[in-house]
Amino acid sequence: MPVVAVVNQKGGVGKTTxxxxxxxxxxxxxxxxxxxxxxxxxxxxxxxxxxxxxxxxDLVLEQExxxxxxxxxxxxxxxxxCGRCPLLAASSPDLSVREAQLATDPLGxxxxxxxxxxxxxxxxxxxxxxxxxxxxxxxxLFAADRVLLVTEPGAWAADGVARMLQTIERIRLxxxxxxxxxxxxxxxxxxxxxxxxxxxxxxSETYPEACLxxxxxRAAVAEAAAQSLPIHGLGSRPGATEAAEEFDVLLDRxxxxxxx
Length: 260
Ligand SMILES: Nc1ncnc2c1ncn2[C@@H]1O[C@H](COP(=O)(O)OP(=O)(O)O)[C@@H](O)[C@H]1O
Ligand SMILES: [Mg+2]
Known about the structure:
By secondary structure, the protein is α/β, with parallel strands linked by helices. The protein has a single domain, classed as P-loop containing nucleotide triphosphate hydrolases (Rossmann fold). About 40% of the residues lie in helices and about 15% in strands. The chain has ten helices and seven strands. A seven-stranded mixed sheet has the order 3-4-2-5-1-6-7, with helices on both faces. Helix 1 (about 15-30) packs across helix 10 (about 240-255).
């Protein structure tokens, strides 16, 4: 049961988009994915068609109950034709207050999500992280067994990646099983400009082993999220099929040895 943290301390690089794309690929493949929306902005929740969550992950982080995440899981609004409908543990704006409270826990507030995920039965869990290296992202990294680092091919992206990799390494040193393992670096929003090509090359040269096949910049990707639809369900919209294929490839890499 892979639990995958999707991270970058920078906003706007495509963490949520990649979570939604992977969820769409999983649904099309008949895999029931659970999305944990740890970003107080809640973009993954709305992208899945949940505008007024009935529960949420915030209470789960407060309660400290082993396996407690089950009480936060609800169904999503994606159409049934798109395959196995994903599940959601929704975000709420209260999460940012919770993050500040976790910081005052004398036991350390970094493993609340890990505890809540105890024994979770879903075949794939994707944790959408906020754009910071605060305790919410740290909770995701303590709960995950894999981590997917998302970046865009923009100025100094490699520096941001290096900082995040250091944090991941520090967490691995603290965990008995040395998790989470890096799935790789997903380069998202790759456009056709010389600038994008340059920064893409920089990343590929700096991290030749870790860079994954890129996700290109396509209007259909943003439209799917804005319409709360899976990219695999956009039909003949230009670029939708190509984008869906890129997320299929990324899902293969995320599932790794679990694919048959
Ligand atoms: N591959 C892509 N093609 C087109 N638009 C994209 C792509 N990836 C992300 N976007 C758009 O870029 C913006 C930021 O993406 P988002 O996933 O919200 O980033 P993050 O979660 O890292 O803050 C959103 O408006 C999203 O629709
Ligand atoms: Mg986001």
